Amino acid sequence: QSEELDRIKFDQNVVIIDIRCLEDYADGHIERAIHIDNEKLQLQSAEAVKQYVWNMNFRLAEKIVVVYWERGGRSVYFAKYLQECGYDALSLSGGYRAYRKYAMQKFKYI
Predict the structure, then answer these.
(1) What strands lie across the sheet with 14-18, from one edge to the other?
(2) At 7, phi and psi to the nearest 5?
(3) Strand 64-68 to strand 34-35: parallel, antiparallel, or no bridges (unpaired)?
(4) pTM of the model
(5) Per-residue confidence of the chain (110 residues) as pLDDT tens digits?
(6) Neighbours of 21 (CB within 10 A)
(7) In this structure, how many other beta carbons lie within 10 angstroms of the beta carbon of residue 105?
């Protein structure tokens, strides 16, 4: 999945959401990722996520939404909540760690 994300991350129909804490996001994130500090916000239901997305005026309709956390576990729930709100959302398998490992491997061969 990391390879696929690398290929599509600049597509205007893809929205990437990083739900890690602000410190982790500041230490490194996937290009174009929107930051939502879910550890701080504790958005734990579809209704809470829907309200937050609406309040922040995120344009997610008709987009593919890719959500990630450090290892992927928490992003599964966040993506599920977005799906329950009608968005086309998925969780990045393995999270940021897997993506970073993929990116580092890619640079090894350049």
Answers:
(1) 34-35, 14-18, 64-68, 88-91
(2) -70, -35
(3) unpaired
(4) 0.87
(5) 667 777 777 888 999 999 999 999 999 999 999 999 887 888 888 998 989 888 888 888 899 999 999 987 889 999 999 999 999 999 998 999 988 888 888 776 54
(6) 16
(7) 11
Query: Do 75 and 92 meet the contact criterion of CB atoms below 8 Å apart?
Result: yes
Residues 6+ apart with CB under 8 A from 62: 13
In whole angstroms, give the CA distance from residue 73 to residue 93.
9
Burial of 73 (0-12, 13-18, 19+ CB in 10 A): exposed
Tell me which residue of 61, 57, 55, 58 sits closest to 17, measured CA to CA.
Answer: 58
Cβ-contact 95, 29 below 8 angstroms:
no
